[in-house]
Amino acid sequence: MAEAVVSSQVGRSSRALTAQKAPPANINASQWRNALFIAPYLFFFATMLVFPLIWGIWLSFHKADTFGVGKFVGIANYVRLFSDKIFLQSVGNTFYFVLLTVPVLALLGLFLALALNRQTRSAAFLRAAFFSSSVLSVTIVTLIWRIVFIPDFGLLATIYGWFGLPGPAFLSSPDLSMIAIAIATIWWCIGLPMMLYLSALQQIPGEIYEAAALDNANRWQTFRSITLPSIKRTFILVVLIQVVMQFQLFGQARLMTQGGPNNTSKPIVMYIYDVAFKRWDLGMGAAASEVLFVLILIAAMAQFLLTRKRGEN
Amino acid sequence: MSNVRSTSIMGREFGDRVVLALVIIFALIMLAPVLWVIGLSLKANAELMADTNSVFRTPYTVMNYFNILANSSVFRWILNSLIVSTGLTIGTLVLCSLAGYGFARLNFPGRDILFVVVLLGLAVPEQAVLIARHQIFGILKLHNTYQGLILPGLSAPFGVFLMTQYFRAIPKELDEAALLDNASRFKIFWKVLLPLTVPAQATLGIFTFLWSWNDYFWPLISGTKNTMFTLTVGMASTQTNFAQSEGLGFLMAQAIFAGAPILVLYLFFQKYIVTAVSGAAVR
Q1: Per residue in A17-27, pLDDT tens?
Q2: What's A230's domain CATH number?
Q3: So what's the ipTM on this one?
Q4: 3-state secondary structure chain B
Q5: Which one of A30, A38, A131, A246 would you mutate to disrupt binding with B, by most B Cβ within 10 Å of its Cβ?
Q6: Residues of A in contact with B131 (CB under 8 A)
Q7: How many domains does chain A divide into?
Q8: Residue A95 covered by a domain
């Protein structure tokens, strides 16, 4: 490291001396062999991502099962998909789940970030506590939350019991199952929005707040005219990351409710899993994956366009 | 004037108290399930079946944890997870460092288009490639092998993006100086620049390890034999006959047993994990 710094100084002076004679360093020249550094990664990118992506699109227009790919069937898989009530229900469930989780994550995350954006030790401890659940695997999260929700033995059932009330069957009620999954998901995912807001808040220069204090601006005015405009972009970012992430709900639903009761908590990804890896109807599973892909692309495009606009202003 | 200020201070104190109260309530909601699980894990199964309120009374026991140690599968799963996560982490660091250096520093035909293509890969959700990849791996007989669990993760574009950004931030004078000393491209990469990227390596490494450790979907469909389960999948497989077969206390002890090492890892590497996660999102 020290060597590098020294040689850089030497290099700078010797470069100055030879500036007129020496041609520009040939490292800047466009050469095929430079691509060798990229090649190893590119091999995996092409074989594990690009190729399966194209194969997946191709598969969605074919009849395919475990024994191999059959004949070309045009859009038959898509037609079957959109006439399957359970698929349409799973799309509805996924949108419902996104509506349940994303606003809470975006607003609660903002609240926590604002409350914990200070240099005290207790704030640091609480930040770590609110983020810690994010590092757990979905298996552990669902294990914890099933034991909160299950009837008779669950934490909520116990708390209801203290008041002499029968606890509702959260996971087996059609009205409550998705809400229960949403609560567990919010508990699991709240750390990331909070951290994103915190890093945005820390980029606001302190002088602006001092100036506002000198102007006798009250807390609400300061928040509205300084804090809020500075984190607008982050807010959009958080909402769209969460939309994309929560669209891909799978593990929580599979492990907490198995998509039940009566498919009321089955999301799109779980539908894909059931069709492709339980019924082995790979063509139709691929078609469902492409629908999900398009939905996520729309969300990603919206993010791109919205943040672009902000940047131009 | 002074009137205005005093009411605003009053308002401030009241507002502070409301905020503090809310934060404490949310913190309790965060912690309560975990405390509940720890409590259950320390109770005998039979006692819990009679009344879960017994959690608030003695006697406590660590028998459930000993029972985990008696279940040999768990150790196999931990070993599998360690092999897969370590392999993927090392592979990702090597591939992404090389590619990051290439994209940031070297010129070759089509470089900029290629970089955009790799970045577009970030927008592809795993589900869009899973089924085809599952078929390809079936043909190549890679299911239920460690390679089969590791290889797909090596294609993740995030690391390339992160390392490219990091290499770009290093002053170019460093390589130009080395170039005048007739160092090869690889030598510049290996001797001069790579040592400077250690913080980015740490961030990317921990992020990859955690991601791989917690990954659920691909190991679920690829490693389908009990002996090839990762810890995440294996723990999920024991949950099917919840409470009835294994006993609440035992299941809860499993949750703590599996979660604790990752939480300790998080506490140690908090800084890097937070950077990685925020970086992953800002991309």
Answers
A1: 444 444 445 55
A2: 1.10.3720.10
A3: 0.85
A4: CHHHHHHHHHHHHHHHHHHHHHHHHHHHHHHHHHHHHHHHHCCCHHHHHHCHHHHHCCCCCCHHHHHHHHCHHHHHHHHHHHHHHHHHHHHHHHHHHHHHHHHHHCECCCHHHHHHHHHHHHHCCCHHHHHHHHHHHHHCCCCCCHHHHHHHHHHCCHHHHHHHHHHHHCCCHHHHHHHHCCCCHHHHHHHHHHHHHHHHHHHHHHHHHHHHHHCCHHHHHHCCCHHHCCHHHHHHHCCCCCCCCCCHHHHHHHHHHHHHHHHHHHHHCHHHHHHHHHHHHHC
A5: A38
A6: 56, 59, 272, 276, 282, 285-286, 289
A7: 1
A8: yes
